[in-house]
Amino acid sequence: MEIIVNGENKQVPENYTAEQLVAEMALLGKRIAMEVNLEIVPRSTYDAHTFNQGDKIEIVHAVGGG
Amino acid sequence: MTQVKQDTPLIIAGVEYKSRLLVGSGKYQDNEETRLATEASGAEIVTVAIRRSNIGQNPDEPNLLEAIPPEKYTLLPNTAGCYTAEDAVRTCKLARELLDGHDLVKLEVLGDEKTLFPDVRQTLIAAEELIKDGFKVMVYTSDDLLIAKELEAMGCVAVMPLAAPIGSGLGIRNPYNIRFIVEELTVPVLVDAGVGTASDAAMAMELGCDGVLMNTAIAAAQNPILMASAMKKAIEAGREAFLAGRMPRKRYASASSPLDDTFF
Fold it and tell me: Can you identify the CATH homologous superfamily of domain A2-61?
C-alpha cells in the first residue's frame, strides 16, 4: 500500500508499523516525533501502530533555530 | 551606605533561572561552535526549531542535541516559519512529544516575509488554543501594549516584544513602547528579536525587562563565542544598572567637583 512520509510517496507492505518505518529510516533510538494525518503518534505506541493506505506521516526532529 | 541588593531570580512558569539571557541555536557554523557559544553565554534556556527528519539520506548528520543536551539545558521549541495558528499549534504538539512531555514553548506566528513581523491576530488565536491544551506559552509579539496585555490576560507565561525585525541587529527601535509593556505587565517581559550587540542587551535590561532572547546577535558576530561572553556581561550590567536606579537626566550641567575654596 502507499503512504506519504515527509512529503514523499512510499510503498510499504500491509500492516507496516510505525516502528518498522522508523527503523527503516535509521531513526530508531533518535529523538523524533511522529504525526499521522495531523494526529500525534506517541513513541510508546510505535510497535503497535499500523498504517493505512494514504496515511500522511510527518517525522520531525530538533534543529538549530532562534 | 545602601546595601548591594540581591536580585530576585527570573521565574518563568514557576521555574527559577539564574541567567536572564536566553539564546537560540540557529545560524552557527557547526555543532562545536553552537556548543561553545551557548556555554559562553551562560544561558539556561535555548531555543530549537522543529523540522522534518532526513529520511536516511545523511545518517552521519551531526545531532544538534549533542551540542545542547536536554539534560543540561531547558530546550525551548519554537514555531519558527509558521504563518498560521494551525501550523504553530501542530508544531508545539510535535515538540511536546519530541521532548517527552515538556510543554514550555516559544510561540511565533509570522505575518510578513520581509520583516518577519508577527501576525498578532493569528498569534492570539494560537496562544489561546495552546494554553487550553496545557502548554506554557512564551509568546513573540510586536511592541504593542494592548496586544501584550491581551496575551498576558489569556495566560501566556511570558510576553516577548521584539526590539527590531528578527536577525536585523538594529537594537531596540522603540524603547518607550518596551517600557510601557514592562510597566503594565506582571508576567516576565523579555525582549526577543533584533538585538545586535552588547549595548542593545544592556539597554533592554535597563528598561526593566526580565530577560533577553537572542540568536543572530551572537551567531552572526565575527567571534560568536566572544560575543556570547559579552552578552552575558551586558545582561548582568544592565540588570544591575536597573536595580541601582539610574540618575535623573538633566538638561543643564551639574558640576561634580565643589565650587568653594578654589585657589584661582
Answer: Beta-grasp domain (3.10.20.30)
